[in-house]
Design a protein that fits this description.
The protein is α+β, with helices and mostly antiparallel strands. 52% of the residues lie in helices and 10% in strands. The chain has 4 domains: 118 residues, Butyryl-Coa Dehydrogenase, subunit A, domain 1 (Orthogonal Bundle); 110 residues, Butyryl-CoA Dehydrogenase, subunit A, domain 2 (Beta Barrel), CATH 2.40.110.10; 134 residues, Butyryl-CoA Dehydrogenase, subunit A, domain 3, CATH 1.20.140.10; 104 residues, no CATH class. The protein binds flavin-adenine dinucleotide.
Length: 504
C-alpha cells in the first residue's frame, strides 16, 4: 500500500475507535450481553460505520487490507467487545481473504465491494454435526451439472448464521460414480441470489458471544461454477492456507481483550481497599496481575510475528507449527487472563454488566474452534518429535540449535536436559511436549519484539512467565498417570454407601 493509503487507514482506525466508543457509551454491557436481539442490532449499527473497509484491498474499495492494520482493527474491537472482534475476524480470515485469494473475477470484486461499501457480512461453514475436529471427512457434497454445482448437506456453528449475506462453503465433490472425492472444494454462496438461500433449521442458544448468531443450516443449493474457489494446488492445501491464516489472526482478537482485562484489573485493584491496604499492594495480587501483563506482552509478540509473516499472497498451508502455536497459546492466555481477572474482581467479576463478567464464557470457545487446542498442541509435539528423530537429536535440549526458530533462544529458554523419548510417545506426552515447544517458539517471538524496541522489562517478565509454563509442562510430561482413569467407576465409589456398610 502507498503512504497515502496508509494514512487514510490510520485516520479511519482513529475515527472508527471514537465512533465505536460513542455508540457503546449509552449501552449497558448487560443489555448487550444478555439480550441477543439488542446485541445483534448493535452489530448492524456498527457495520454501517463500514469497518470492513480496513480488511479489503484497495482495488475493491477497501483501505488496503494490510495485515498490521487488520490486526489493529481486531484489537480495537476486542478492547470493547470480544464478539465484535470475532465478527471482524470471521469476516476477514474466513471470507474476505479466501475470496480475495481464491475467488474468480468478477465474483471476487463484486463481493468485496459489496462488503466494503454496504457493510454486508460474510462467514464460513466447515463444521457438520458429525464432523467437527474430523472435518476432512465432511459429508456435504457438490455435484456439477453443466454450469451449476448442486450442493447438499448440513452445517452447524457457522458464525453469523442467518445474518451473513456471503458464505464460504466447504464440501467434497462427487466423482462420476457418485462417490465423494477425498479433496475439499470451496464455494462462495450469496444468499440473496436465487437457488442460494441457506435454510436455518435452528438457532443455537450460544452461552456467550451473543452478538453472533449460531445455529444449524440445511444446504440444498445451486451455485454457479463462477463461484467455485480456484485452488493453487489441491483443495485441502487451500483450506489449510485459509485455516492457518485465520489462526494467525487470533492474536489480534486476543490482544485488545487481554489489554482491557489488564487495564480494568489494575484500575480495580488500585481502588479496592481491603483492611488498610489497596489490593494492588499485595504480592499475591501482583502475581496475578503479572500473569495478565505477561499475557499482554506475549500476545503483542505474536501480533508482531504474524503481521510480518501472514501476507495474503504467501502460502501458509505448510505453516502449521507456527499457526498452531500462535492460536493455541494466545487463546489459552485469553482464558487464563479472564480467570485471573474474575478472581481479582471478587463478586463484582460475576456480573454480566462488567466486561470481566462475560470474559470467561466469551473467550472459552476460542480454545475449541478453528482447531481444538488439545489437538493443535499434540500436532506441534508430533511435528517437533519427528524432526528430532530426523535430525537424530538425543534430547530436546540437544535439538534446540537444529531448529530455525529455537536456535536463537538457546540461552533464553530454560529447557531441562532430560526431555527425551526412548519409545514412541503417547498422545498425552505429545500434548505436553507440544505446549513446551510452542512456548519455546514464542520466546523467540518475544526476543524479536524486544529487538524492535518494545519495553525490555515487559519482555523479561513475559519470558520468565513462559519459562515457568515450560517447567509446569515438563512436570506434567514426566508424571503422566496413564492407568488412573476408569470408565466403569461406580462400584465402591459412593462414600455414604461404604460408610453405612461399615456401620453395620
Ligand atoms: C462459538 C463457536 C464458534 C464456531 N464458529 C464456527 C464457524 O464460524 N464455522 C465453522 O465451520 N465452525 C465453527 N465452530 C465449530 C467448531 O469449529 C467445532 O466445534 C470444533 O471444530 C470442534 O468440533 P466438535 O464441536 O464437533 O467437537 P469434536 O470434534 O467432537 O471434539 C470435541 C473435543 O474432543 C477432543 N478431541 C477431538 N478430536 C481429538 C483428537 N484427535 N485427539 C485428542 N482430542 C480430541 C478435543 O478436546 C475437542 O475439543 C464454532 C464452534 C463454536 C463453539
Amino acid at each position: 500500500m502507498n503512504r497515502m493509503g496508509n494514512m487514510l487507514c490510520e485516520d479511519f482506525l482513529k475515527s472508527f475507535e471514537s465512533d465505536l466508543d460513542t455508540l457503546l457509551k449509552d449501552r449497558k454491557h448487560e443489555e448487550i450481553a444478555s439480550d441477543r436481539a439488542k446485541a445483534q442490532n448493535l452489530l448492524t449499527e456498527i457495520a454501517q460505520l463500514k469497518p470492513l473497509k480496513v480488511l479489503i484491498p484497495e482495488d475493491c474499495n477497501g483501505l488496503g487490507g494490510e495485515i498490521a492494520d487488520c490486526i489493529r482493527l481486531l484489537s480495537v474491537a476486542s478492547y470493547r467487545s470480544l464478539a465484535l472482534s470475532l465478527t471482524f475476524g470471521i469476516n476477514w480470515a474466513l471470507c474476505i481473504q479466501p475470496v480475495q485469494k481464491f475467488g474468480q473475477s468478477p465474483v471476487r470484486e463484486n463481493t468485496l465491494k459489496d462488503m466494503a461499501d454496504n457493510g454486508e457480512l460474510g462467514g464460513l461453514m466447515i463444521t457438520e454435526p458429525g464432523y467437527g475436529t474430523d472435518a476432512l471427512n465432511m459429508k456435504t457434497s457438490a455435484q456439477r451439472r453443466g454450469d451449476v454445482f448442486s450442493i447438499k448437506g448440513t452445517k452447524h456453528w457457522g458464525g453469523l448464521t442467518g445474518r451473513a449475506k456471503y458464505w464460504v462453503l466447504t464440501c467434497r465433490e462427487m466423482d462420476e460414480k457418485n462417490n465423494l472425492t477425498k479433496d475439499v472444494s470451496m464455494f462462495l454462496c450469496d444468499v440473496s441470489q436465487p437457488g442460494q438461500n441457506i435454510k436455518v433449521e435452528e438457532l443455537y442458544q450460544n452461552a456467550g458471544l451473543h452478538m453472533i448468531p449460531y445455529g444449524i443450516n440445511q444446504l440444498d443449493l445451486k451455485i454457479p461454477v463462477s463461484h467455485r474457489m480456484l485452488p493453487e494446488s489441491t483443495g485441502i492445501r487451500m483450506m489449510l492456507d485459509l485455516l492457518h491464516r485465520s489462526r494467525m489472526q487470533f492474536p489480534g482478537m486476543a490482544l485488545g481483550f487481554v489489554h482491557r482485562i489488564l487495564d480494568d484489573a489494575i484500575d480495580y485493584c488500585e481502588g479496592r481497599i481491603i483492611g488498610k491496604s489497596s489490593l494492588i499492594s499485595m504480592d499475591q495480587v501482583q502475581q496475578r496481575l503479572n500473569e495478565i501483563q505477561s499475557s499482554y506482552t506475549i500476545i503483542s509478540a505474536l501480533c508482531h510475528f504474524c503481521s510480518r509473516t501472514s501476507y495474503v499472497d504467501s502460502d501458509l498451508s505448510t505453516m502449521s507449527f507456527e499457526a498452531n502455536a500462535t492460536k493455541a497459546v494466545s487463546t489459552d492466555l485469553m482464558q487464563a487472563s479472564a480467570q485471573a481477572g474474575v478472581q481479582l474482581f471478587g463478586g463484582k467479576g460475576y456480573k454480566l454488566d462488567e466486561f470481566i463478567g462475560r470474559a470467561i464464557m466469551d473467550s472459552r470457545p476460542f480454545q475449541i474452534f478453528e482447531g481444538s487446542n488439545d489437538v493443535l498442541f499434540t500436532q506441534n509435539g508430533t511435528f517437533i518429535y519427528k524432526d528430532m528423530r530426523r535430525k537424530k537429536a538425543e534430547s530436546f535440549k540437544d535439538y534446540l540449535p537444529e531448529n530455525k526458530y529455537f536456535k536463537h533462544v538457546v540461552s533464553q529458554a530454560c529447557v531441562p536436559a532430560d526431555i527425551l523419548f526412548t519409545d514412541r510417545p503417547s498422545q498425552v506426552e505429545l500434548y505436553h511436549f507440544g505446549k513446551i515447544v510452542s512456548y519455546v517458539f514464542i520466546i523467540g517471538a518475544l526476543q524479536e519484539l524486544g529487538q524492535s524496541g518494545f519495553r525490555s522489562d515487559l519482555i523479561a517478565s513475559a519470558t520468565a512467565y513462559l519459562n515457568k509454563l515450560i517447567q509446569y509442562e515438563t512436570i506434567s510430561l514426566k508424571n503422566i498417570d496413564s492407568k488412573g482413569f476408569v470408565v466403569d467407576y461406580q462400584t465402591n465409589a459412593t462414600w455414604h454407601q461404604i460408610a453405612s456398610t461399615l456401620a453395620v
